[in-house]
Amino acid sequence: MKQVNYNTKQKSAIMSCVKTMGDKHFTIDSLCKKMQKGGEMIGRTTVYRFVEKLSAEGVLRKYNALSGESVCYQYVGENNSCHEHFHLKCEKCGKLFHMDCREMSELVEHIKSHHGFYLNPLKTVIYGVCEVCSTK
Question: Which has the closest alpha carbon to 89: 74, 102, 103, 107?
Fold first, then answer.
């Protein structure tokens, strides 16, 4: 039996809100709050299920968190270029940063050629402390 995908008003509202995030990282909670501010009252479970579906389809990137932290997502949509770079995550404030750096591709190549190991930029996050938190 073929599964039918319904494009409900709720899914459309969630997708519209996700698109407004651009390439910024967000959590389920931050997405729900943004939708509520915009007048959309959609249950957290519905948002979570649809966001997970979008993640499985490759529309969103999912970044797993450390124990006790929220998972965050990033909209990639049609512009699927986020696979070309790595991310930095601040251990103090939790912010996730894009790392567009040519030297990183040299490191990736070194690891591949000298160690026979292929890094996956979709799942590679480097942890440390951001500049703002380090000056506090």
Answer: 74
